[in-house]
Amino acid sequence: MSALLEVRDLRVRYGHSVALDGVELEIGEGELVAVAGANGAGKSTLVNAVAGWSRGRVSVTGQVLLDGRDISASPAHRRSAQGVVLVPEGKGVFEQMTVDENLRLVRAPKDAVGKRYEVEDVYGLFPQLRDRTAARCSTLSGGERQMVAIARALRAAPRLLILDEPSVGLAPRLVVEVLQHVRELVHGGLSVLLVEQNVRATLDVADRLYLLEQGHVAGSGSADAMRDDDRIARAYLGGLSR
Ligand SMILES: Nc1ncnc2c1ncn2[C@@H]1O[C@H](COP(=O)(O)OP(=O)(O)OP(=O)(O)O)[C@@H](O)[C@H]1O
Ligand SMILES: [Mg+2]
Questions:
Q1: How far is the CA of 141 from the centre of ligand 1 (A)?
Q2: Cross-sheet strand order for the sheet of 191-195
Q3: How far apart are alpha carbons 54 and 86 in whole angstroms?
Q4: 206/200 Cα distance (integer angstroms)
Q5: Distance of alpha carbon 46 from alpha carbon 25, whole angstroms
Q6: What is the pLDDT of residues 119-146, one digit of tens each?
Q7: Percentage of the chain surpassing pLDDT 90?
Q8: What pLDDT digit, counting tens, does each position of 168-186 carry?
């Protein structure tokens, strides 16, 4: 099976400081791939580079291939039209607009390859949003807001949905709820690249996980294998015993 997305020798510098140092990564069709790592490891830098987003003065080299075709030179809006859709860290909704307005504002491009989600489809996936259609997003709970952010991204007809810390600031119960929703989307055929701090909850839903340390991939493997990886166990799961 050829990969839906492939990242080859990705290097990102902010001025003289190296944030990513030769990262290689692959995501298959219908796979949920997670990226974990400490604060500042380069997770957001990685997903921003995949989506073609830049924060400040940044130099990016290496290749990002979608269906084997190099999209490294495409701007973010082109990549999004091709199905690489990012929900950036801490963003993704217009706070002063209602849930419904947020969802209707996004439309899939005419030639979208990814699955199309009408507003009704999205409410079907996130029933609790249906009760809040007329609510301003500023009045939603953190979990509801994240669901709106994911729902908006779905409206763009993604093939690869990239989520940068969708559960940041959420209570543990809501983290699990948001991640379960993500897993259901993957059951429906979507591919997802998920950045998450909550490694324990992530390993329960992810197919594979990459561990990023100081801008390079320190380890990767199936969720089961990574659960037993010493570095993951020590740093994220509270010791080596389970
Ligand atoms: N716009 C920027 N200009 C300069 N340095 C930056 C910029 N964005 C990120 N960095 C630096 O690059 C490194 C990687 O940052 P990045 O935001 O990718 O980390 P992260 O793994 O997403 O961290 P977190 O878990 O805190 O979100 C950090 O050292 C950070 O300070
Ligand atoms: Mg980040």
A1: 27
A2: 84-87, 160-164, 191-195, 32-37, 208-213, 216-222
A3: 12
A4: 10
A5: 10
A6: 999 999 899 899 999 999 999 988 899 9
A7: 78
A8: 888 888 889 889 999 999 9
Spatial separation of the C-alpha atoms in residues 112 and 14, rounded to whole Å: 33
- The Cα–Cα gap between 36 and 230 comes to 14
Which one-letter amino acid corresponds to residue 58? V
Q: Which amino acid is at 69?
A: R
Q: What does the pLDDT read at residue 220?
A: 97
| Helix-then-strand count for the chain, H and E | 10, 10
Q: Which listed ligand is nearest to 42 at the C-alpha? A: 1
Please give all residues whose beta carbon lies within 6 A of any atom in ligand 1, as ranges.
Answer: 14, 17, 19, 37, 39-45, 55-56, 89
Encoded amino acid at 196, one letter: E
CA of 44 to the centre of ligand 2 (A): 4
Instruction: Please give the structure tokens belonging to residue 174.
Output: 């809501």
Strands 216-222 vs 208-213: parallel, antiparallel or unpaired: antiparallel
List residues bridging with 192 in a β-sheet: 32, 161
Q: What three-state secondary structure class fits 191?
A: strand
Residue closest by Cα to atom 26 of ligand 1? 39
Burial of residue 174, with CB atoms counted within 10 A of its CB: 0-12 exposed, 13-18 middle, 19 or more buried: middle
pTM of structure: 0.94
- The domains located in the chain, with CATH, are 30-44+83-236 (3.40.50.300)
Which candidate, 160, 158, 153, 157, places its Cα nearest to that of 178?
153
